[in-house]
Amino acid sequence: MKDFINTVLGFIAENAKIINIGVGIIVFLLLFLLRNKLAKALLSVVGSIAFRKNERNKNSFISTLLRPLSVFFVILGIFLAVYINVHSVVVVRCFKIATIFVISWAIVSYLSDNLQLLFKLSDSTDDKLNATVIKFITNILKIVIIAIAVVMVISELGYNINGLLTGIGVGGLAVSLAAQDAISNLISGFVIVLDKPFLVGDFIETDSLQGTVVDITMRSTKIRTLEDSIVTVPNKKIADGEVFNISSMDKRLIDTNLSLLYSTSSKTLQDCQNAIMEFLKNEEKIVDYPIRVNFSKLEDSALIINIYCYTTITEINEYFEYVSTLNHNFKEIVENNGGEFAYPSTSVYIEKK
Predict the structure, then answer these.
(1) Neighbours of 274 (CB within 10 A)
(2) Region at 118 (left for phi over 0; alpha for psi -120 to 50; beta for the rest)
(3) Residues 48, 310: Cα–Cα separation, whole Å
(4) Each residue of 121-167: pLDDT tens digit?
């Protein structure tokens, strides 16, 4: 038995190079042939732990990282096959560089396909806007990740990266100063997208205009004004100011005054108030509360009845049409109850001497 063992050890010693080559080839072939199964098994385990309650995220995690991880197993197989035969720092360094690029590829691939889920952009957000945001952010992340990978590779090759980082910092500062307004608009575009103060199709009011949002990009927002003209507003101007999203209202205020002659009797005035109140309570498009019809004040040339209520109509054109209909009804109610409308007037008395 001892002679057999010595014979085997002697054979291995005499043919060590050939055996190492054979072992390296076998290791490479195993990893190459089983790369997809190994990658899928590993990703399934990690995905089950990370996304226990979300099957959709788990499947997306596996599908986006399957190819990069499969390529990594091939690279690992090549590294092990070579390193078994050649113990060299160069081989290890090449493996590290290849691993850096595969990891960068995997990160970019995952972010490209899952950015909407990461930022929690809802399906209610405009699809075109989603696509613009995702594409823009993905491109920025690609540049950042690739830049980091290149710096790591340069460092791995033994070069001093301090000067390179200083140059990148100075260059980035110069670019940011030159494109300050553009960057501000882009950041404001992100704020609008993530905060969603309005969407395409909403009627909004800003500090300077009113209109319907027709398009939102990362740099600006296009608004169709009441004059039917398209105004392009930089996102920074919108984000920094007050924005009233009129389309998000579930009701609209109606606040109007009726001016009656001073000759109107108290009974007629009260009859008009009661009739208007009764009319509003029976209107389906008027909110039940609050409804106020008050003899509010005495103007210089008129008695003022103030009408204060809300309507369920929020669309701007329908709202104006409904208010017009209400005004016709108010006029008819006043006239039917014996009231007369006042108009601005001045009485001049001439004293006889």
Answers:
(1) 13
(2) alpha
(3) 53
(4) 444 445 555 565 666 677 777 888 888 888 888 877 776 666 556 66
Q: Cα(296)–Cα(121) distance, rounded to whole angstroms? A: 49
3 state DSSP class of 218: coil
Q: Mind listing the pLDDT tens digit for each residue in 287-318?
A: 988 999 999 988 888 999 999 999 998 887 88
Return the H-helix or E-strand segment holding 203.
strand 203-205
Lowest mean pLDDT across 119-128, 238-247, 252-261: 119-128
pTM of the model: 0.50
Residue 130, amino acid = N
Strand pairing category for 203-205 and 210-216: antiparallel
One-letter identity of residue 47:
G
Cβ count within 10 A of residue 13: 9
Query: How many distinct helices (H) and strands (E) make up the chain?
Result: 11, 8
Tokens of residue 284, six digits = 């389906």
Angle at the Cα of 136 from the Cα atoms of 131 and 141, rounded to 5 degrees: 125
Give strand ranges (E) for 246-330.
Answer: 252-260, 292-298, 303-311
Contact 319, 311 (CB under 8 A): yes
> Measured between alpha carbons, how far is 93 from 246 in angstroms, rounded to an integer?
61
| Tokens describing residue 260 | 């009656």
CB distance 132 to 95 below 8 Å: no
Are 315 and 285 a contacting pair, CB within 8 Å?
A: no
- Spatial CA neighbour of 303 closest among 349, 329, 265, 251: 265
Q: Decide: 230 and 222 in contact? Cβ < 8 Å.
A: yes
Euclidean distance between CA atoms 298 and 305, whole angstroms: 9
Contacts of 344 (CB under 8 A, 6+ apart): 301
Nearest-angstrom CA–CA distance, 40 and 161:
37
Beta bridge partners of 223: 213, 231
Contacts 24+ apart (CB under 8 A), 53-59: 57/114, 57/117
Q: How many CB atoms lie within 10 A of CB 258?
A: 23
- What do you get for the CA distance between the two ends of the chain, in Å? 154
